[in-house]
Amino acid sequence: MKNALFCLALCCLVLQTFAQRVHVIPEPVSVQEQPGDFVIDNSVVIIAPSADKQLAGTLQWFSDRIATATGFRLKEAKTGAKTLRIVLQKEEKKEGYQLKVSPQEITLTAADPAGVFYGLQTLLQLLPPDIESSKPLNRRWSVPCVAIADYPRFGWRGLMLDVSRHFYTKEEVKRYIDEMAKYKYNIFHWHLSDDNGWRIEIKSLPELTKTGAWRVARTGRWGTFESPQPGEPAKEGGFYTQEDIKEILAYAQARYITILPEIDVPAHSLAMIAAYPNLSCTQLPYSVNPGSPFYKKEDNALCIGNDSVYLVLDKVFTEIAALFPFNYIHVGGDEAYKGFWDNCPKCRKRMQQDHLKNVDELQSYFVKRMEKILQSKGKKLIGWDEILEGGLAPEATVMSWRGMKGGIEAAKMNHHVVMSPWEYCYLDLYQGDPAAEPPTYGMCRLSDSYNYDPVPDGVDENISSADKEISGLNPSPITGISST
User: Fold this and answer.
1) How much is the pTM?
2) Per-residue confidence at 52, pLDDT binned at 50, 70, 90?
3) Gap between the Cα atoms of 417 and 478, Å rounded
4) Angle between helices 359-375 and 307-323 (to 10 degrees)
5) Pairing assessment for the beta strands 478-483 and 236-237 based on DSSP bridges
6) Ramachandran angles phi, psi of 311, nearest 5°
7) CATH code of the domain containing 93
8) Same domain as 332, residue 389
9) pLDDT of res. 262
């Protein structure tokens, strides 16, 4: 009896160890583990189609990644004792792949180079964690035998980086993109402007970066800092030149990541207003905000009744549209304090001329006008869910951050929606015991994000929408999910 119990316990231990060999994030559609390993060494060669230049770049990237940690340089060949075989097959789902690992061969089948790239990301996760090493390590590099089938549920899988409140260097942005690629994100939402800094060179408006990119230095808890003092030097910040932007765009494209630029208007515009004071209703001289309280005290919203605002924004978006190839530009539209508009003669005149009932419709007027400006440059508009207030622009896409209500409303109006409700998708919230973390405004545990389904009851989802080209979005209202 004791021997039987011992054997049972041993079997359970073996099964548990076997079951824990494969850990992939995000979880693939299908995983079938099998006994054995594929060992990577100097004898491994890559067999792949040679006609696709984009695929060639992906395989070079993978070979470099492997060589960095292992010291083994995988070379392309027609035959070999142990092979990594790449197969392009049109029948596979777009961005999907099948990965089959046996002791002598790894076969990766995909419809396109993007699917190959995601399959290789999975293969890297199957290797020991030391694959992240920045220098060669002398160890056994084994991949567990497994059959994996995977494809994305959504065509839009986004992650935002706010470079206004904290400026990140060009190299830091690239490292962020690398982390996105590892987890198969494909939209980099780049928040390039806010009250706290203007971060992109606009050649026709040099004051945006000369003044708007810099603020006084402060440390401590954000939102409690002392306001800028008269004569205090503004030396903290930075911006990206247009050449920097092009370099980062190419870096992201090589990793199958599309960049969505955001210029946040009409509110969150204090950095722009600091550069050009005539753009606000008050037309007072303001400093770029360093993280001090200012809401309702300083006018951080553009004057909707001022025609100069639209001339400036046309210049901004002309250069943005020329730089970024994505069909979409994000215009923000969130958290606008409307008190200054309500008391502004120019805004009230605009409301009278265009028969606008209230300041919500005034903001809607602004967003609709922004949509026309973007359309004139061959782009489409996306904004936060506040753009629903006062009436949604005819072809606007809504990114729903204040919960799911705005997204549901827009979806039922047959507008595209990207779900990003803060309580499930925001990474700057408490993720554990608040006593052990910096102060913030809400809780989002890992389990909350994992259990969140962005498609609510009553809204149809077309699963095959991921097969559509991302630049055209999806045929269903729920386009995807984005974290901030």
Assistant:
1) 0.93
2) confident
3) 5
4) 40
5) unpaired
6) -65, -40
7) 3.30.379.10
8) yes
9) 98
